[in-house]
Description:
The two termini are about 50 Å apart. About 40% of the residues lie in helices and about 15% in strands. It is built from 21 helices and 23 strands. It folds into two domains: about 10-35 and about 65-120 and about 235-510, TIM Barrel (Alpha-Beta Barrel); about 125-230, CBS-domain. The chain is of the alpha/beta class and about 525 residues long. Bound molecules: inosinic acid. Inosinic acid binds near residues 79, 337, 399, 427 and 451.
Amino acid sequence: MIKKFLQFQSQEEREWLLRKIMKDIYPNFQPGRCNPLPRYSLDEVALTDRYSEVAPSDVDLSVSCGNIRLAAPLLTAPMDTLSGSELGQAAFELGMGCIIYRHKKAEVQFEWIKQIINHSPCFVHQPKTLGSADTLEDAADILQKYHYSTIPAVNADKKLLGILFTKNAALKENVSEPVTKWMTPLKDLITIKPAEKFEIVRKRLLSERGCSVLPVVDDNGVFCGMYFRKDCRPAKPAYHNGKPLVGMAVSVNPEDIKRAKKGLELGVSLIVIDSSHGNCPPVIEQADKIVKIIVTIAELYGAAVIAGNVASIDGYLRLAEVGVDAVKVGIGSGSICTTSLVTGVGVPMFSLIRECVCTREYLISEGKHAPIIIADGGINNTGQIVKALAAGAHLCMAGKYFAAAQESLAAVDSGARAGDLVYYRGMASRGAIRDRSASFRYGTGKQAPEGVEGFVECRGPLKSWWPQDEELICGGLSHVGAATIEDLHKIGNEPYIWSLLSSAGQRQMETRVLRE
Ligand code: IMP
């Protein structure tokens, strides 16, 4: 695919467009005058409901970024307490994109990418098993220690004998009885072969009555692992070129061109040039180089290039000019971000998205290359996700939201479970700067923090809580009559759709949250 590059080469042309868009959006805008503009954050606005024949279950949240199709409009932020192998596997299973953070050792980043690319969705490889001589007491130990209530029994040759569902063995007085007496024997189980496609597995689990688990057994009867219905139900794994979807972050360091190339060879679908300020020559030049690699040398890979962050029309335009597929917008809005406080720079997210959307629409109307918009920073709940998408973003990148997943790097490190507190920190927080793994995002000389460290309550495995959040996001689209994100974008452009909330209106929303 040859991209259409922008013709705007001169500063005058960019400024002309900037003024035009400002005048369109802000009626009181006066070129040449220093007037603070009324820009709003996502929490200051709300959507009006509309007549709707769309049920939440009819809503399709899938979205494209270049050649990549995601099932859910979310990306995990490339942060060192967050995006590693486990979160990548969980995000892939749900059709989201995980952007593996730029570990200071390239081999670690590649290893995580490989693990995700080789991951079979929802497949439990090495579950705890019982032997033929084990007793109900042994099963109770496994239940107590690991909370597993479905335990396969195998013989000495690892051949499957049956599955013990501990609920069937509960309250048995004689705990020294063999599990083989109480298990469901192999002849009464539905099994599948190892090479079965995930879609077939999912279909069987959801359609066969009473089939909550599917053991995988090879031609010799050897037990290989199993699938659970509860895991497969919400799964919508997203692939690109037949490989699991995964992204990687790179820096502006010239060495990182090699990193990006290696990532592409491994099968990475999204390359993010990650910087706290994307509207500067090193980021624009790095984006330019990586886009050219993908368009020319690596055409086959068809990966998408994302660059950022910017918080201005000018920044969006300059990254569009080099042909990136998506621009990350947001400065100063992250939950762990103190940039606005300590540098005085930051643009409220709702207005920032609107300004970039208007710019994008202008580029489309001119037949020019127009990257999609990724809202990044401060998007931590489902309402904010719906509002960011309705404002015109195609994807939301989130940090704190995913820090609550049991698969985040910090949660995996600390063995956190639902209800525990999990460490989450900014990439320019004191801790991250000290550990130096974050230095690339803000430059190697970074000493002064622009972020903080904190804790987030763990919500458990991503796939246990995403289905509810997904339902709420679909509910948001259904309230305004949107069946897809494309519909939502059109609706978000309607004249009466947005309300500006007074401080009382914002308080009212908070009250509802507190009452819950
Ligand atoms: P959150 O989703 O509100 O937690 O924000 C996450 C986003 O904050 C990331 O995707 C980055 O764009 C940004 N970010 C990460 N670390 C820092 C930092 O230390 N200071 C400022 N912004 C940061």
